[in-house]
Design brief:
The protein is 80% helix and 0% strand. By secondary structure, the protein is an all-alpha fold. It is a multi-pass membrane protein.
């Protein structure tokens, strides 16, 4: 992709994509942080909640091919990014209306459709910054990534202030966040139409591109990619199970009322990744990728088990730090293990298969297990038992890193996810 943006356009696109990242990642945590706990409070069972979260993840994956098609149909990346914002606004607005008129089916539809909106931002945001900044996109991506982390950390608190401040929960106030998303989408759209946009492009043959050598592909270790796929799938299944039910756990098991205090607790836990990713990146340079990837997986499982047995939020803080900060390490290991011409292939398999599969399975398995145990242990004990069982997968994932060969080289770990 050619470097297209200059001067003021660069700064504006960085600003718009950073705000977009803040809102997109914030909206993504409205679902497990705000909407799902409210649904649980009004009597929706664990199995339905797990299914909703799984459908959200599955729809997001299935909608991914729409992103390049939207860029082509709309004639630019900014316009497609705006479409993603509009889809988010529609989904959140639909859930808000559902809560207002006490129609949970509309809330369910809003949660599932949010997966379509979630599919848009990340591929478009990184492409916009790479196109406008070219070889100097690293710092821009870092700033942009920091806004995403801030949005993820702050939105549970913002949502709690909007919804739980009064004596009666006002879940329909989600319309405020839908409106903000809509306004940002309109700003992005108008800028893309009247000022500057990165047009849809086709990748042509480049003499500098590595040759597509079938014999090289045959030398790829299929067993290695299968191993990394299994490691990532197991880890992400456990991690997603925790993330889906974290808010509900804080509310039902710890007994923290859905309130502004609840939002503060959840935001502090999620803020752990802001410091976690740089620290794990630095440690991986000093100690090694495989060790840190394995260690962080064991660490989040052990720390979350300690949290379950003690209720101490300090354990939860560091557990979430490791949950949210591990994935860049896996991507770095892929970059180290595979030749340059095969990295995108390996990354695609791990991202599209293992990560997506883990997102779906983690929510679904945890929800079904928790619902199965409700008649035996009650709602509180059922969720604890379900999470403890799912965390077994993290221990298996961490142990399997010992079978991954030592990388022949090292690459820099991205500090922001």
């Amino acid at each position: 992709m050619m470097q297209e943006g200059k001067g003021r356009d660069r700064a504006t696109i960085l600003g718009l994509t950073s705000i977009g990242h803040f809102i997109n990642d914030g909206n993504m945590w409205l679902i497990p942080g705000i909407i799902l706990p409210i649904l649980s409070q009004v009597g929706v069972n664990y199995a339905v909640i797990g299914l909703l979260s799984a459908l959200y993840a599955a729809i997001s994956a299935l909608a991914s091919p729409l992103v390049p098609l939207s860029i082509k149909w709309l004639g630019g990346h900014m316009r497609a990014m705006a479409l993603g914002m509009f889809l988010w606004a529609f989904a959140i607005g639909l859930s808000s209306i559902g809560f207002l008129i006490h129609d949970l089916f509309l809330v369910y539809i809003g949660v599932v459709l949010a997966g379509v909106g979630a599919a848009y931002y990340h591929p478009i945001g990184s492409a916009l910054l790479s196109a406008t900044y070219g070889g100097t996109a690293g710092s821009a991506l870092g700033i942009n990534g920091a806004f995403g982390s801030l949005g993820r950390a702050l939105y549970p608190l913002i949502g709690s202030v909007l919804i739980f401040t009064g004596s009666v929960s006002a879940a329909y106030n989600l319309w405020v966040l839908a409106f903000i998303t809509l306004i940002v989408g309109l700003s992005v759209l108008l800028y893309g139409i009247y000022k500057f946009d990165v047009k849809a492009y086709r990748r042509g043959n480049n003499k500098d591109d590595p040759p597509n050598n079938k014999s090289t592909m045959l030398r790829v270790s299929i067993m290695l990619i299968i191993l990394l796929f299994v490691i990532t799938l197991l880890r992400n299944t456990a991690g997603q199970g925790i993330q889906t039910f974290l808010g509900i756990y804080i509310n039902k098991v710890l007994g923290v009322k859905l309130s502004v205090s609840y939002g503060e607790i959840l935001s502090i836990l999620l803020a752990s990744a802001i410091i976690g990713q740089p620290i794990l990146g630095w440690l991986s340079d000093k100690i090694g990728r495989r060790f840190m990837a394995s260690f962080s997986t064991f660490a989040f499982a052990i720390l979350f088990i300690a949290f379950i047995y003690t209720g101490n939020l300090v354990f939860a803080f560091f557990a979430i730090l490791f949950v949210l900060s591990n994935f860049p390490l896996i991507m770095a290991v892929l970059g180290d293990l595979f030749p340059r011409e095969q990295v995108s292939w390996a990354t695609s398999i791990v991202w599209n298969g293992a990560v997506t599969g883990g997102n779906v399975l983690g929510s679904l398995i945890t929800g079904l297990l928790a619902q199965y145990y409700v008649p035996i242990y009650g709602e509180v004990g059922a969720l604890e038992h379900a999470l403890l069982i799912v965390l077994i997968l993290a221990f298996i994932s961490g142990a399997l890193w010992s079978a991954v060969p030592k990388p022949p080289k090292r690459s820099k770990v991205p500090l922001f996810g």
